[in-house]
Structures are given as C-alpha cells and as structure tokens.
Amino acid sequence: MRSSSYLSLTSLLLILLSCTTSTVQPLATPSAGLKVVGGYLLLNPSTAASKLKALASNAAKIPVNRIFLSFVAPTMVYVPGSKTLKYADIGYKKGGDYGFAEVKKYVGLLQKGGVEVFLSMGGWNFNCFPYFYMKYSISSFPTGPNYWKIQQYGNNSASNCNATNMWCYVCEPQSSNTTLSDFVIFPEPAKTKTWKRAQAQVEAASKTAKGMPVKWNPQFIGGAVVTDGAMSVTVPGDNTWFKKGRDPYQDFVYLAKDLGLDGVDLDYEEIWHADTFRSGTVPGPFKIDQTVYKYAAISFDIINNIKAIYPACKFGTAAGAAGAWQGNWWGGNLKGLWYYLNLWYPEVVNFMATGKNAGGINVMTYDLSNNNAHFECPSGQTADCDLAGQVQFYMETYANASIPARVGYEVGQPAYPDPTNDAAHQLPLTKAGLSAIINGVATSSTLGGFFWELYKPKNSEPTGVAGQPNNIDANTVARQVCKAVIPNAARCNGSIPQIPGISSAMGGGDAGYGHSMNGFPGNSGSGNPNGAGGSGGGAKQ
After folding, report:
1. pTM for this structure?
2. Within 10 Å of residue 136's Cβ, how many Cβ atoms?
3. Do the strands 225-228 and 231-234 form a parallel or antiparallel pair, or are they unpaired?
C-alpha cells in the first residue's frame, strides 16, 4: 500500500487460548461461480466498521458480488475457536475481540445479500523488505525507472540509503512516515509439519522441472538479524507465530472457517525476494526460480489446510500483469512467476482456477506506464501502449499460458509511476479506457473482473482533478464491469453506499491512492534497466 492505511502489527505476546474448533454453518449463499465482479475493501480502525456495516446493509444492491477484506499479515496467528483478531489484525479495530464478532456478523449479512466475502493476505507493505528491495531491485539497475529515489534521497549512492531514511523510501514515499514496523514479509515456518509437507511437494516436483535447485530461507523471521555481505539488517514483521510454533498459512484457513468466509486470497508481491535470490548476473537476464518455489510452497500449504480444515473454502490469488509472460526476466518485477508455477506445479493453478474451490487468478492489470524509455510498452511499440492496449496484451499472455484469469482495474490516481516524479506517464482509468478494456478483452474469457478499491477517490494529490480530470469513480467502474459480466443482474444498477463524513465512492474519501494491488509488481517500480517498473514486465526479450 502507498496510503495512510492502517497496517500496524501488535507485538504483545499471545495469550494462551482454547484450541477447540468452532462449528461453522454452511455458506449462506450459492457460489458466485466464475462470473465475479469483485471489489477490494481496505480496512483501517477509523472507518472499517462504518464501511463494512454500510456495505452489509445494502448487500443486495451493491454492484459487486464479491468483496475482498484487506489485509491480514502473513505473520498472523489465529488459534481456532479463539474468536479474536488480536493476532490476526485486519485493521478493523483495537481492543476487545478486535472486531471478530462484528466482522462475522457483517460477513453473514453480505452473504445473505448475494455477496461472497474473501479475506486477503498480503498487500504491498506486507510484502516489502526495504533494505533488500532497495539493494537488489532498484540500486542494481542505475538506469531503471525508480533509481531516482536513490539519487534524491541517497545522493546518488545506495550506501547513503539506510534505516533513518527508510532505505531511500523505496517501499513507501517519505510522506507516509513509515517505520520498519509497518512492513512485513512472508515467512517460511520451517518447524511446522504443515510447511514441511508443502516444502516436500515443491521439492518433489522440482526434481523433474528444469529449474535451479531449491534453496529455502527460514532465517527471515521478524526481529531477527540477517547478514548481506558486511551489512546486518533486521527483518521486518512480528514473530509471535515463531515463538508459538504456529504456521500462519494454516491459521489463515482456521480464521476463514471461524468467520464463515467464502474464500481466501493470496496477495503475494515479494519482488525483493525475487531479485535477492535470483540466478544470473547483472544486467541479466535472470531466473526467478526460487520465488516460484516459495510461492508454490505457500500455496500448497494453504491448499492442504483447506482440504483438511475447511473443504468449502475457495482459494484465489492476485497476480502480476507480467506474471504469465514467457521470455527473459530482467529483474525488478515478478515476470513469469505464474507461467512457471503453471508449468511446474499445475495442480496449484488448477485448484485456484477450476472446480469448487476456485477463487480465481486475479491479474493486476494496472499501475502501468507508457514511458518507453524504460521499455514500458510490452509490445515494444507505442501505438498500443495505452492502458487498454497493455491490458489486452497482458491478458493474452495468461490465455497463451492456459491460465484462466480475471482483469483488474484501479480507481483514481495510480501508484506507478510515482506521481511526484513522473505523473505524465501514468495511465489512470478513464471512461474511454474502461470501455476499450471491456470491449477488447472478452469477459467470457476473463471470468469477470475486480477493482481496487471500493472507497478509493477518483482524484487525489499530488495530481488532483486538474492533472487527471478524466478519472472515473468506483461506482462507474463497478457498474460497467458488472453489466459486462452479469448483464441481467439488478445489482448492476446499484451503488456503493456513501458514508457521510467519512468517504464517498464518487470521489474524496480516505482510501488513499495505493495498496498492494495498486502497484503490484512495480509497486513503486521495478528498478529494471530493461523492463517495466509497474505491473508490466518490459518489452525487451
């Protein structure tokens, strides 16, 4: 996320809780199936209750049939039957049960109104390791689209990027006032049986694949100190899961069951991991194998636990625009991650994309740039480098890889390129752009669409209305996508409820201009000298 969204994690020790699993009633509504119109809901304690209550009260009338509650950290702890979000903080509220009972109540109301509810794990801040992202994803490529951060905050030297300037503010802008405690990475819970089983599944398949040997990195535990040459850095994130010997990915499923959710969503964006553990030498091309293995292990862990704990639960993922693109990977994004996942571990993609547990492959086809000085135009040409042209290109890569997928849309000010540095090359969603995307990428082949975010304003600083006057609002996006996906549904003429004094789906509000989704694999850029810094992968093959 690149906003003032609530992301803090409690560092209090976990109180011993009952391990009794609660009884869960069957899901209140039939599955939305493949015809999904989804919206992400970013939660923070100041507005979460009002937003979720308003949406639940109008569930039958809102122009979406799936809501993603965002986000829970990948270091979460939830003991089944405990009925508290204290150590599985989703940004709902502080104190008491941290909103568990209220969230469960509103989940039920949404389901009765025909809206599926998923919980998303991840988000940009819950994926970013500032030091490693700075060193390997940005400073390695002095001609990349985000090297300006090192020039500006590090006086053109990575050695001047340190903890006091948040490693040259590579994960979040200086205005966000973030500290290391705001960031989290996905752990490898090596001592748990469930993770070990997932590792074994990855290793067994890797023996027949043509990838590099698997190398795990369980030392990356919140609060631990890891070394990189002569540098010692502290790993961001909470370590309660480690102290208690729990597997956060198993607890993710336990929480989904106790809340009665329809599904879980994996928002994995560890670009820092891909670049830190890549194979090859600068300037590339490189191999992204180690991150394919890590993502596959996380996915297997979740899948195994769904089968064992909550068989009705759906499982989906947010995926990078360039994630299914074949060809050379030049670093700085997650190009090819889902292509290789499908090639080496097709059972993971099949579980997400087909059958009763399919939550879908949701492609973040936004935060794209038309600055071809950084090879941002995927076709290599500027003629089709507008937003609709790029979306069509990237969705075709998923189709070519035989990966069923959904189109992603972003409301308002994009996060990439950074609007304070290169607003001229941003590609915000406009009415014309939305129509071109809907007409250019058949909904029958994309299985619907989703957008970020339900209460994100259509204009925000620093560009504002004057800089991007044609941006469209969340209601327009939701309605148009809804009519394309489920054209005869009455909800497509409905509205996202406005909340006086808090936010408005028509503009204004407090959702900020970013999250993990809005900037997935470039999320602030890639640092790729030959490829894109946003969701794209760069034209150079």
Report:
1. 0.91
2. 24
3. antiparallel
